[in-house]
Amino acid sequence: MDRHRHTRSLRELGDSRRADSLLFMPLIFNLVCSGCSFSDEVRSAAYAVVDMEDGREEICPHPVERLTARRITGVEWPELVRAKRVGYRYALTCQACSKTDYYRSARGFRGPAQGLIGGIAHVPSSKEAREFVCSSCGRPALVPSTRVGRGWRKQEVACPNCAGHLELAVIGIS
Ligand SMILES: [Zn+2]
Ligand SMILES: [Zn+2]
After folding, report:
1. Which ligand is nearest to the CA of 103?
2. Which candidate in 6, 85, 110, 156 could, as Cys together with 51 as Cys, close a disulfide (CB 3.0–4.6 Å)?
3. Rounded to an integer, what distance in angstroms lies between the CA atom of residue 166 and that of residue 46?
């Protein structure tokens, strides 16, 4: 028995799976200030939601979205998707008041069509962000939270407490 080869092939399999996970799992991050101790809470860039029969929206946490949706609705995931009851909320940050919140697109982005992983790993574009107004101040000044920072392809957001600016601090990948 070639034990060495067996071990190596398992490790290679593990590595490729880990690499795939890193590409497709949603980011967990903080927004921190460059000039003071301000820090917005740990959050994920996106999460799945399901519409209940009574019109309420419930969160389906990662990685048990399908199980949660089935448990609380009694309906299987593919059927919920077909009925357009599965949605995704994405973190957007306001350049006017610095508030970060989660917004659900009226057209659902392309999430549901791409499946669960495509939905939660989707990074909203600046164009998509402009379809919303801030839930806190009502101004149309939202940018994708994962692009907050200063520099190339970044969107500058002022700190609510000082003259500094907010930066993305990646905590992990869920
Ligand atoms: Zn600050
Ligand atoms: Zn605002």
Report:
1. 2
2. 85
3. 19
